[in-house]
Specification:
The structure holds two protein chains of two kinds.
Chain A (H helix, E strand, L loop, with lengths): L4 H6 L4 E4 L5 H7 L5 E5 L9 H10 L3 E5 L13 H14 L4 E4 L20 H18 L4 E3 L14 H12 L2 E5 H11 L3 H6 L6 E7 L2 E2 L4 E2 L8 H14 L3 E5 L7 H15 L5 H8 L7
Parallel strand pairs in A: 1-2, 1-10, 2-3, 3-4, 4-5, 5-6, 6-7, 7-10
Antiparallel strand pairs in A: 8-9
Helix pairs in contact in A: 5-6
Chain B lengths: L5 H12 L5 H6 L1 H4 L4 H5 L12 H23 L1 H22 L14 H6 L7 H19 L16 H5 L2 E4 L4 E5 L3 H9 L12 E8 L2 E7 L1 H11 L4 H5 L8 H10 L3 E5 L3
Antiparallel strand pairs in B: 1-5, 2-3, 3-4
Helix pairs in contact in B: 5-6, 6-8
Classes of the chains: A alpha/beta, B mainly alpha.
Bound molecules: fe (ii) ion (FE2).
Fe (ii) ion binds next to strand 7 of chain A.
């Protein structure tokens, strides 16, 4: 394996943001000070035009991590080995520190539904997932990093809670985990469990990085929309998660109604204040933050 | 009872998610009900109960999200088609399209590859013949954007090649180049739409457009029938001399060729014996 789990877990890259097309110009022209960027892997696969050229340029100046949505790791279809080979080629091209995807399935019988669909947390599903994660790690020659998804239903008769399922999976495969704090909050709200209790059950020695994001609240449920700032409850959970983990790389996702680069970056850097309550970082940002100026 | 096998559960779930109607209709549909009976779902044996949402309502979050997500993705590639059909018309088109051409690729940028052909035989679609050609133009733009990387041929590096040798030269075009012949003035509609000043759906009139990528941007260039014929011949592998003969007497073929080359439309050249 190219990087061990310990290396991934131990590498705190700082505060990153998800690389989005609308920010390409600002990033290329102003080279803002950002600790790292997370790319959506599929945006740079099966294409040879501007996206890959822009990525080359950005990867020359910033640390990159990869985040995908189509590995379909939980599906009962055969693994898409061609997809995995291309994923690895992309990593070689951009020098990404790690490759992540979600604990979910995205399609069956050859179809891709392009959604992060929930798995039953049963012994059978766990066995299936363990086998698949091991196979993927053999192909990628590194620990795979997997994220807890937002879900809108749970299957009846589970054998495990989600943190138990994650622990079993991580222990059996040596995979890394991506702890999306917003997803924990959304699921806790949708499925009526205690989010803090969830965090206390997470196998922190496998957690490589955090995700933060905004979501939308409906009368009956919360939806993981990534269309706004992080809510106060999620910041509170992040503080707890930060303490429990001892500190990890942290990444803000913003995918809809995306504001300008500065606003996204400022939102991400609020994490510094929550990591260290004595931090004056927001004041520093405000003082030097003439819009778009490199920092 | 024991939990359903994971594969069965996934086939059932997918059947509900991709159903063109709503989740409650999908649950009762025979193909879905045959996998996991609706009654079993109603008894709470498949999904854990939720005090705010019943089983169909929870599944509807996924069913509704599926179509909305894929409509949005296709709207990105087919914005002008969506403009002509209106939001509801476009969503209905996408639902019909997905029923026949569900995504089978890890990348959403492949989802719309069959849409122009689907539109061409989608009976009852308003302005069908025009919309099919408009979709073809938008697909060409998307394909040019995603075409493999290439290095354009620098024709001026062949300064010492004699003119008669040039006449026997055969070119390979860059992988983004697509030559389109339409029965409607498609680009004359597309351009104002793109600039935010849409015009009415046009009457039939033959037109020719080349779509290609240059300097990481996608370009559309309107051609005369002669230019289209000359470039088509070159792309088809004919030697330059023969390809230029497709032009009318007196047309500035040398200039055309120079502009094709300057636009990076070729990646390699072979000189005949
Ligand atoms: Fe996430």
């Amino acid at each position: 394996m190219t990087s061990s789990l310990a290396t991934l877990v131990g590498s705190d890259l700082g505060i990153g943001i998800g690389l989005r097309t609308t920010h390409y110009e600002t990033i290329l022209e102003e080279r803002p000070a950002v600790d790292f960027f997370e790319i959506l892997s599929e945006n740079y696969m099966h294409t040879g035009g501007r996206p890959v050229r822009v990525l080359d340029e950005i990867a020359a100046h910033y640390a990159i991590v990869m985040h995908g949505v189509s590995m379909n790791i939980g599906s009962t279809d055969p693994l898409d080995r061609d997809y995995l080979r291309q994923l690895k080629a992309l990593q070689q091209r951009c020098g990404a520190r790690w490759i992540s995807d979600h604990i979910c399935w995205t399609g069956v019988e050859g179809k891709n539904l392009h959604d992060l669909l929930p798995l039953p947390y049963t012994k059978g599903a766990l066995r299936h997932l363990i086998e698949r994660v091991r196979a993927v790690q053999d192909i990628l020659e590194q620990p795979l990093v997997l994220e807890n998804p937002s879900t809108y239903l749970q299957f009846a008769g589970p054998d495990y809670t989600e943190p138990e399922f994650l622990s079993e999976l991580a222990t059996a495969t040596g995979c890394g985990l991506l702890m999306d704090v917003n997803n924990v909050f959304v699921c806790a709200s949708n499925h009526d469990f205690d989010a803090e209790g969830y965090l206390r059950g997470v196998p922190w020695d496998h957690v490589v990085y955090f995700h933060l994001a905004g979501h939308t609240t409906y009368e009956t449920h919360r939806l993981d929309t990534h269309d706004g700032p992080v809510c106060d409850e999620v910041w509170d959970l992040y503080r707890i998660a930060h303490e429990l983990s001892g500190g990890r790389s942290t990444l803000l996702e913003w995918d809809a109604d995306i504001p300008d680069f500065q606003a996204v970056h400022d939102e991400a850097r609020k994490a510094l204040r929550h990591r260290d309550p004595k931090s004056t970082v927001t004041d520093v940002v405000a003082a030097s933050g003439s819009a778009g100026a490199p920092r | 009872m024991s939990a359903p096998e994971l594969r069965l559960l996934q086939r059932w779930f997918a059947g509900v998610v991709e159903h063109p109607s709503t989740a409650d209709v999908a649950l009762a549909e025979s193909a879905v009900d045959a996998l996991i009976p609706e009654a079993q779902v109603a008894r709470g044996e498949i999904l854990a109960p939720n005090p705010r949402l019943d089983a169909a309502a929870m599944l509807q979050i996924y069913n509704g999200g599926y179509l909305a997500r894929l409509v949005e993705a296709l709207q990105g590639d087919y914005g002008a088609v969506a403009h002509v059909l209106g939001a509801d018309g476009f969503q209905d088109l996408v639902a019909r399209y997905l029923a026949e051409f569900p995504s089978r690729h890890p990348n959403l940028n492949r989802l719309g590859r069959c849409l122009p052909a689907f539109i061409a035989r989608d009976d009852g679609l308003p302005h069908r013949a025009f919309v099919a050609e408009l979709a073809e133009l938008e697909l060409a733009c998307a394909r040019a954007f995603d075409a493999p990387e290439f290095e354009p041929l620098a024709v001026d590096q062949f300064g010492d090649v004699a003119p008669e040798q040039w006449m026997s030269a055969r070119f390979t075009s860059n992988p983004s180049l697509q030559l389109l012949a339409f029965e409607h003035p498609v680009d004359e509609f597309y351009q104002p739409w793109k600039e935010g000043s849409p015009v009415d759906v046009p009457e039939p009139l033959s037109s020719h457009v080349a779509v290609f990528r240059k300097d990481e941007r996608v370009w559309r260039q309107r051609f005369t029938p002669s230019m289209h014929a000359v470039l088509s011949a070159l792309v088809g592998g004919q030697p330059l001399g023969e390809a230029l003969a497709a032009a009318e007497e007196g047309e500035p073929v040398a200039e055309w060729f120079q502009s094709f080359a300057a636009d990076g439309l070729f990646v390699s050249v072979e000189f005949g014996a």
